[in-house]
Amino acid sequence: MEMTRFSDLTIRTRGLRKVFGGKVAVRNLTLDVPRGEVFGFLGPNGAGKSTSVKMLLGLVLPTSGEAQILGCPVGDVKTRSRVGFLPEHFRFYDWLTPTELLKLHGRLYGMSHAKLRERVPVLLDLVGLTPHRDKSLRDFSKGMLQRIGLAQALLNEPDLIFLDEPTSGLDPVGRRLVRDIIKAQRERGATVLLNSHLLGEVEITCNSVAFIKDGEVVETRQLDDDIEDQITVSIRAPNVTAEIADGLSRWSRSVRTKCERLTLSVSSGAVVPEIVRYLVASGVDVYEVTPQRLSLEERFLEIVGTDGGL
Amino acid sequence: MGVWIMAGVTFREAARKKMLWMALAAGSAFLILFGTGLHFQAKDFAAHGMSPVLRREISFTMVTMGLYAVDLLAVLMTILTSIDTLSGEIASGTIQAIAAKPVPRWQVLLGKWFGFCGMLTAYIAIMVGGVNAVTYAMAGVTARHLARGLSLMWMESIVLLSVVFVFATYFSTLTTGVLTLGLHGLAFLGGWIEQFGAITQTPRAVNVGIIASVLMPSEALWRRAAFEMQSPLANSLRISPFSTLSVPSMAMVFYALLYLAIALAVAIRRFSQRDL
Asked: Residue B100: how many CB atoms within 10 A of its CB?
């Protein structure tokens, strides 16, 4: 497997740990997020996801370990001009209008007035808030507030965007909007780290995910179609000999036989007809073939358990 | 740059949330009440043919009384308006989106501090100016060393503001308020003990008051301000809220400046290092 080059990593952590009082929030976070990825960060409540994000943003100081974002140590103030962040519970000065809020955050990014005059209307339009640009934020619904939070995270056209539960409070139209925005950011070349409980959203949006439990990454997983072991094929065929089963190894490294049933993991659904042709040519009576994708939700439940880590 | 952005937004918040305007409205009501009292007093003095010297001294006392009320209002204004700015934003998470920007945390804190300084400066200047304008219009007198007194009253508020900022980086909004008011209350009580000690010539009691001023120099600054602003005759009054039998020295004023600077430095250090 080709090693990811150091310079290709947007986020790199080694043994990152955070202890609050006597409570371990993040035990040992070791993570590599390549440039240009939409990376899902999954785990049950209290797994340490938000604390990890806050450490990467310099909001929480790590107890030990090391971390870099965009090639600089976390906490480096200048690097933050290339970072966007939507906190889990985005709070703001609710006496401002959306335009004023974006201008304030833009000024904090060091953006000029001229640049903001150009950028703010574009972002308000992007998140569908142009008709409400002069309303006070205290009159906004939860979904509208989430949209303005998303807009402030994109103000500086960041290279790295942290989105902590970005679809929280959004209706299906808003969720679709978030998906489209994330896609556009990926196409622009930005890296997105997405914290979300909505596994369906993550599955649609992300290239890869990390499952975190008890403050540790327990598994990282590519979500692209051509990755091996993504599809499990279950075949009901009573007369499969050991020799025929061995012949299946050209399509799968994992072949299991039990009673009349063969179970094998394959890299792509496209190989299923080939397998069937092979079995029939070998004289096997094939009664049933069921390709199944192990959903992210099933894998999530396998990893964290049905108690959600509580 | 971040300092001035945060100072601007803090000042605008006070104005937009109507804090400043409500405080000024309440202050105006106070000035009207004060002016009405002075008006009737001046009428009675003229009717009774009171001597001009006595009339002048009573008017001086009235100025000090008005300024004493302004000082109390300024103390409350300082604490009540600022206690939520840091601790509240830390608790609610509002600070997260701000602190994740490419602005050092010390600039965020200092900006907020400057924002409140601006608001309190405007408030104190308007209120102290108002009291003096009213007494000048009604009785032809103003505070004796007005600029010095005004500076000391302003400094008292800024010392309290800095203490609020220190506590706010450690504790919740309510705890910050309770601690700051408690510390000011301690200084207030210490001031009275010091005055009684001076009257009864009890050096130990005077020392207790001085120790209270070392712990929190806010009240000492008011007493020095009162000393600067009222007439020499009023200064010799035995016991009153404006009594200055034991006048805080200039060393205490410089100590208060140092205290303010240290409080601000502690707040900046703590805010820069704490988890948000």
From this structure: 25
